[in-house]
Write a structure and sequence with these properties.
This protein is about 35% helix and about 25% strand. By secondary structure, the protein is an alpha+beta fold. This is Lipoprotein.
C-alpha cells in the first residue's frame, strides 16, 4: 500500500513538473523569436517587404570587429549583429546607419523609408502594409516579386494577378518591371503567320481563328498573346501543329494587354520550345 502511494506521489510530481516546463519552453521560444539577432531581424524585415535580394555574407572588414556576432548583406542593406549595444556606438551618428540596441542597419542605397525599418525593429516582429521606396504600393511589390521569381504558374495566372492591380499601377508595373523581360508562356495555338503566331491561354478554347477573336470574340483578347517569331521574314513556321494544340513559347514581353480594353499581350524574339 505504501509503495502504491509513493508511486502515485512520484507520478504526480513528474506530471506537475512537465506542466510547469511546457509554458517555460513556450516563453523561451517566444523570447528567442523576439531577440535582436541578425536572423530574427532579417526575417522581420523580409516579411515586412522591406528587403530585396538574397542573403550574402558581410565583408571581412565588417566581420573583423571584435564585438561582431553575425550579419548579412541583402541587396543594398547590411544587417549587423553585435554582442552588445556597445558594438554599435561608432555607428550611431553615421549618415547611412540605423542603430537599435545591438543591431545596426547600413543603407547602401534607398534610405527614404528609414522610419519603416525603425518601426519594425521597435516592434520586434514583421509589420503589414510596408514596401520598398521604388515601389508604389505593397500590392505592386508583391506582384513584381512573384513575376520576377517565376512564382506565377504561366501566362494566365500572371495576367490574372496583373489585372487585379489598381488601374493606376498597371502601366507603371508593366513599363518598369515587365517590359523586355524574358518569359516562358504556354497556351493553345490559334494560328501561325509568316512572322508571328497567336496563342490563347484563358481557359476553354473552341477553335476560333485569329480574325474571329479580333472581331467577334474580343473577350478572349486579354488572355491571348501574339508572338513575333525569330524565323526569317517571309518564311512560314513549319511547326507540324494543329490549331488547338498545346504550345510553349519563350520571348520578351513587348506589349501590355488589358481586361477592360480587351487588348492582347505581345512577345518579341519568340522561340517555340515545345
Amino acid at each position: 500500500m505504501r509503495k502504491t502511494i509513493s508511486m502515485i506521489i512520484v507520478l504526480l510530481l513528474l506530471l506537475t513538473g512537465c506542466m510547469n516546463e511546457s509554458p517555460n519552453k513556450e516563453e523561451t521560444k517566444e523570447e528567442n523569436n523576439r531577440a535582436y539577432t541578425a536572423d530574427n531581424v532579417y526575417q522581420w524585415l523580409n516579411e515586412s517587404n522591406l528587403l530585396e535580394g538574397e542573403k550574402e555574407p558581410l565583408s571581412e572588414s565588417v566581420q573583423s570587429h571584435e564585438k561582431f556576432v553575425n550579419g548579412y548583406s541583402t541587396g543594398d542593406i547590411d544587417i549587423i549583429e553585435y554582442e552588445t549595444a556597445e558594438g554599435t556606438e561608432q555607428l550611431k551618428d553615421h549618415p547611412i546607419a540605423l542603430v537599435h540596441e545591438n543591431i545596426a542597419l547600413m543603407f547602401l542605397g534607398q534610405m527614404s523609408q528609414k522610419d519603416s525599418f525603425k518601426a519594425v525593429l521597435e516592434a520586434r516582429k514583421p509589420l503589414e502594409g510596408l514596401y520598398r521606396g521604388y515601389f508604389n504600393s505593397a500590392e505592386q511589390q508583391s506582384f513584381v516579386h512573384q513575376f520576377r521569381d517565376g512564382k506565377f504558374n504561366g501566362f494566365e495566372e500572371t495576367v490574372d494577378h496583373f489585372y487585379k492591380l489598381e488601374d493606376s499601377l498597371k502601366s507603371d508595373t508593366f513599363t518598369r518591371f515587365m517590359y523586355q523581360k524574358e518569359v516562358t508562356w504556354k497556351g493553345k495555338l490559334v494560328q501561325t503567320f509568316p512572322d508571328f503566331l497567336v496563342v490563347f491561354a484563358g481557359g476553354t478554347y473552341n477553335g476560333e481563328n485569329w480574325l474571329n477573336i479580333e472581331t467577334n470574340s474580343t473577350e478572349m483578347l486579354p488572355y491571348t498573346f501574339v508572338v513575333e517569331t525569330q524565323n526569317l521574314e517571309g518564311q512560314s513556321l513549319d511547326l507540324k501543329m494543329e490549331r488547338g494544340d498545346s504550345i510553349t513559347v519563350k520571348g520578351k514581353v513587348n506589349k501590355q494587354g488589358s481586361l477592360e480594353g480587351e487588348t492582347h499581350w505581345g512577345l518579341e524574339n519568340g522561340l517555340v520550345i515545345q
